[in-house]
Amino acid sequence: MGTLSLHRLVLSLLLVFLSHSTTTTTAQPPFPPSFKCTTTTTCTALVGYKPSNSTTLATIQSLFQIKTYSSLLGVNNFPNTTPPNQVVSSNQTVRIPFPCRCNGGKGLSNKVPQYTVVKDDWLSTIATQKFGGLVTYQQIQAVNNIPNPNLILVNQTLWIPLPCSCDDVDGKSVVHYGHVVAQRSSVDSIADEFGTTSQTLMSLNGITDPKKLLAGQVLDVPLKVCSSSINSSSLDYPLLVANNSYALTANNCVMCKCHPTNNFTLQCQPSGSKSNKWATCPALQCSGDMLLGNSTNISSCSRSTCSYTGYTNQTILTNLVQENTCPAPASERNGASKINLRGYRSLAFGLLFIQLLILLQIFM
Length: 364
Ligand SMILES: *[C@@H]1O[C@H](CO)[C@@H](O)[C@H](O)[C@H]1NC(C)=O
Ligand SMILES: *[C@@H]1O[C@H](CO)[C@@H](O)[C@H](O)[C@H]1NC(C)=O
Ligand SMILES: *[C@@H]1O[C@H](CO)[C@@H](O)[C@H](O)[C@H]1NC(C)=O
Ligand SMILES: *[C@@H]1O[C@H](CO)[C@@H](O)[C@H](O)[C@H]1NC(C)=O
Ligand SMILES: *[C@@H]1O[C@H](CO)[C@@H](O)[C@H](O)[C@H]1NC(C)=O
Ligand SMILES: *[C@@H]1O[C@H](CO)[C@@H](O)[C@H](O)[C@H]1NC(C)=O
Ligand SMILES: *[C@@H]1O[C@H](CO)[C@@H](O)[C@H](O)[C@H]1NC(C)=O
Ligand SMILES: *[C@@H]1O[C@H](CO)[C@@H](O)[C@H](O)[C@H]1NC(C)=O
Ligand SMILES: *[C@@H]1O[C@H](CO)[C@@H](O)[C@H](O)[C@H]1NC(C)=O
Description:
It is built from eight helices and 17 strands. The chain is of the alpha+beta class and 364 residues long.
């Protein structure tokens, strides 16, 4: 074997190693975002929108026709005092809540948003610039029955079909999030960012080879939700609040937040806001004088919390719920072993790299 060909071999091995886990190309159609959705219900889903120019929360709310401003704040965990003219710069990603409907095995935003064509619009610029690459122009063309994609009219309204799902993942309720893959990210880095695993992402998105992940591709990412004690006959059942976000419910009277520090149990308390339906918010109290969200310690490992259990036409339901507050040993151990495995894998790649460098030295 000549030095030159060995050199080439080592170089190509290095290139394989370097490209092992990062995206190198930009997705082009055909990569129409399409999420599997076999449930027959509707639900709330999310997409991550990166505006191509700096804009405001109010403009985003109106572009995506988000029903309530508080839901936009809640899914992004923005303080409830954030003003609508808050600037969103083009390097920021904002989570957009929208109603999802499953049909024929796939999920699409339920007839929203409706976009009104303005002068100088093209289907392709609407898809890639106005809506941040969350859809392709072919998908807009298809759902709106447009025969010629180069022929759209000013003031024509178009349904922008956002990808979504309502399915459980690994037997658990989740909130599905449509994530546009950025340059130089990988299945592993995306899994880390959103608190899921590479295996889950790959099976959910039908990815067999993580090296084939393309920038611009829209991935279905399942977000963990908090468990709750909400009654199945409650009008907001099943209230799915994703990790690190909050939601107003019970006609705006109750604010529920989901955070890892509370063992992913939904924490609800009076919102302090005015009701959008009732003249005044009903008393939010459990038996005795405990208010919604208040806790008392029963023993060193358990406490009793006045929890939100739902609402009806007339009233808000609460119940004293006992919670275990000591660390769960089993899940802790799982977490630790996962980190170790990841460590071993990068160690293995490091060793491979060193071996290649030694080979280079020996033969040259
Ligand atoms: C973004 O800004 C540039 C220049 O200010 C403008 O030409 C372009 O049309 C804008 N894009 C969108 C989607 O508004
Ligand atoms: C985002 O862009 C703004 C200006 O548009 C800049 O001030 C800010 O530092 C940028 N943030 C990041 C994380 O790049
Ligand atoms: C579009 O709608 C606006 C307001 O309804 C109207 O003023 C305008 O003339 C319309 N433009 C075209 C090209 O139809
Ligand atoms: C929860 O959210 C935080 C912050 O966004 C993130 O760091 C963490 O990985 C998430 N955990 C899970 C299990 O989703
Ligand atoms: C749920 O609510 C219904 C009616 O409001 C009630 O009959 C039922 O007992 C509740 N179930 C639980 C588990 O609290
Ligand atoms: C009980 O809940 C109310 C309403 O959220 C709150 O203002 C108060 O501080 C809580 N009291 C205790 C002791 O946690
Ligand atoms: C209840 O127990 C937690 C620790 O589990 C402690 O941090 C908290 O201060 C206790 N609260 C009261 C009111 O004793
Ligand atoms: C709400 O209450 C009214 C009467 O107060 C009743 O007629 C109506 O059916 C109720 N709606 C629901 C969804 O329960
Ligand atoms: C955390 O929540 C899970 C179910 O949501 C429960 O099985 C577990 O016991 C809880 N652990 C602690 C420490 O509260």
